[in-house]
Write a structure and sequence with these properties.
Number of helices of chain A: 4
Distance between the termini of chain A: 54 Å
CATH superfamily of chain A: NADH:ubiquinone oxidoreductase Nqo5 subunit
Number of domains of chain A: 1
Order of helices and strands of chain B: EEHEHEHEHEHH
Strand order of the largest sheet of chain A: 1-2-5-4-3
Shape of chain A: elongated
Oligomer: heterodimer
Number of domains of chain B: 1
Helix content of chain A: 10-25%
CATH architecture of chain B: 3-Layer(aba) Sandwich
Structural class of chain A: alpha/beta
Number of helices of chain B: 6
CATH class of chain A: Alpha Beta
Strand content of chain B: 5-15%
Radius of gyration of chain A: 19 Å
Radius of gyration of chain B: 17 Å
Largest sheet of chain B: 4 strands, parallel
């Protein structure tokens, strides 16, 4: 049974409410994906959650994005799920800031707590209003943000692996 | 597997035998090692096979695993140790009572293995001293048994004074322990 929440319906609802803040509408592999202005991202997500016709009430995942050497390098991606209708939606936003700061989503979902800590841990993003923003997966003494593309992957302190031998 | 029925060197007569304390204690210790399995990934699975009936580590006197570091003799580190896990491993090592031995099982525990990355410890000997390294990714149970037998040799031949020697204390100090 097809859901009444079609991609076109979501697009229409969002554009009605947010107009030009919905910057890009895509449908990769049938997955409704919206790129929105950074200033509107919290309101868009809150609207998707709270609007009775949409009610995307489950936060599936959230993560940071880094596309170096574009106008807007850093971004944030959220995936929401309407469980009764089994419809999913993806929200992206990009920014040209070097140290982006977003409004915390923990006010909408407590589950966003650890996901935002992960985005902080790996990308250095700030989340205003987050109750406990500190590293979650990496060791506390790590310096830098490992999933930023300029971060060197290899352990700089290795002793036994010789560059000459391993061809790096 | 005639490990446990070997004969001690010493002076023998009818109804008695005299040997050095070192040798008698060494024989007792080597055949009653209590291992502490610190298994974090696939090498731990091989260790399970090593403990099970086909390979049966119990044949070498290591029947009884100790899940408390305070009662363990041998720390068996099996698997990738992330840098975040490092302080935990170190604390476990510090909680073990002397005399204690450490075996690094598999490429990851020995050198970091294929995980040449910022988040993985490049060998546990960066933070704790290691007695025996077992290569392999993962090593077969036979290799783990061979490593344990190497530990048995060390245990058997260790001087009772070694743990009080300045060299040993210096070695621990180089790791910042005590």
């Amino acid at each position: 049974m097809a859901s009444t929440i079609t991609p076109d319906f979501i697009t229409q609802k969002l554009q009605e409410k947010f107009g030009d803040d919905i910057q890009l509408v895509e449908l990769p592999y049938g997955f409704p994906t919206y790129t929105v202005a950074k200033k509107a991202v919290y309101d868009v997500v809150a609207f998707l959650k709270n609007d009775p016709a949409l009610s995307f009430q489950f936060l599936t995942t959230m993560c940071g994005l880094h596309y170096p050497n574009t106008n807007k390098d850093f971004g944030l991606m959220l995936q929401l799920h309407n469980l009764p209708e089994n419809v999913q939606v993806r929200i992206k936003c990009f920014t040209d800031e070097v140290n982006p700061s977003f409004k915390t989503f923990t006010t909408l979902w407590p589950a966003a707590n650890w996901m935002e800590r992960e985005a902080y841990d790996f990308f250095g993003f700030n989340f205003e209003g987050h109750p406990d923003l500190r590293r979650i997966l990496n060791m506390d003494s790590l310096e830098g943000w490992p999933l930023r593309k300029e971060f060197p992957l290899e352990d700089p302190f290795r002793r036994d692996k010789d560059d000459k031998m391993f061809g790096r | 597997m005639s490990q446990s029925i070997e004969k001690l060197e010493g002076f023998e007569g009818p109804g008695f035998m005299a040997t050095s304390l070192d040798k008698a204690v060494g024989l007792a210790r080597k055949n009653s090692i209590w291992p502490l399995p610190f298994a974090t990934s696939c090498c731990g699975i091989e260790f399970m096979a090593t403990m099970a009936s086909t390979y049966d580590l119990a044949r070498f006197g290591s029947e009884r695993l100790s899940f408390s570091p305070r009662q363990a003799d041998l720390l068996m580190v099996m698997g990738t140790i992330a840098k975040k896990m490092g302080p935990v491993l170190r604390q476990v090592y510090e909680q073990m009572a002397e005399p204690k031995w450490v075996i690094a099982v598999g490429a990851c525990a020995s050198t970091g293995g294929i995980f040449d990355t910022y988040s993985v410890l490049q060998g546990i000997d960066r933070i704790i001293p290691v007695d025996v390294y077992v290569p392999g990714c993962p090593p077969r149970p036979e290799q783990i048994l061979d490593g344990v037998m190497k530990i048995q040799d060390l245990v058997h031949n260790e001087s009772l004074r070694r743990r009080n020697s300045p060299e040993y204390k210096e070695m621990l100090a180089s790791y910042g322990i005590e």
